[in-house]
User: What shape does this take?
Amino acid sequence: MAVGPLHVTAPVCLSCIRPLPSSSSSTQIHRCPLCRMPFCSPSCAGDAAHAAAECPVLSKGGGGRLPGDSVTDFGPGARPHPVYQCIMPLRCLVLREERPEGWRAMQVRKA
Assistant: This one.
């Protein structure tokens, strides 16, 4: 199966799906070096699902700015960010290509 954030969500860690700490907290946000999406820790920033699915797409940002750079409001009360809307569809497409049996199982559950 594919695991990821809700379609409409405030910024969360793309690996463990936990809410990111408040922008004003002392807890550091860790960003993927390629696409700049935020994560809660260095180990989460190295997540294989992220590297296989959304990172290659998001790291091709245009105009010199990557989509992850626009995610700046974190913590309780943070507004949903539109970049999270593409994460699950991208992970599902990777599932279809890399694990067809998982894709078929997902299609059966959807029906």
